[in-house]
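QA checklist item 7 of 12: single-chain prediction sanity check.
[x] sequence parsed
[x] length recorded as 189
[x] structure emitted
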Amino acid sequence: MAESPMSADPLEIIEQVCERDSLAFRILVVHGELVAGKADAIAARVAHLNPDVRFIEEAALLHDIGMILTNSPKLGCHGQHPYVCHGVLGRELLEKRGLPRHAMVCERHVGVGISREDIRVQQLPLPDRDMLPQSIEEQIICYADKFYSKNGNSAGYEKSVEQILKKLQKYGSDKTRRFQDWVELFENR
């Protein structure tokens, strides 16, 4: 199902939920731009898979918009939800704005995706459904996102594949395997 073109640009959408001069706005925009830049480079390497580059750029800028509604003071966010909920919260925000495809990127980018089993076993405060990246665009954005933190100390610092894999190890071999599959798909061309 095709999605109509965006009715507003990503920065305008972020401004609708976040004060432009706030810490949260700066973190969202800087992080989103870094992820978008990395995702663009990845999309160019896998052009044979026909990724929608315009969509990737928009969705990468918006993928963390749900953090505004979380209780994450270090990110300038003073909502009432735990940070792990930022994906589903972002989905809700963007669905209300008529952007269902962008909304799914929000929901499916957390970690390397969250399975229904993860939600049940870890008793996460999330809907009981799989939230795994499916489209090539969702996978590219999820992968690119892992290279950048949102804390103020390391904004702009790109993590290595080894650093990411080490961090993912504590979440299970299925997570490291998914990320390694993406390394093979996106980097070894």
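[x] summary fact logged: The longest strand covers residues 71-72.
[ ] second reviewer sign-off
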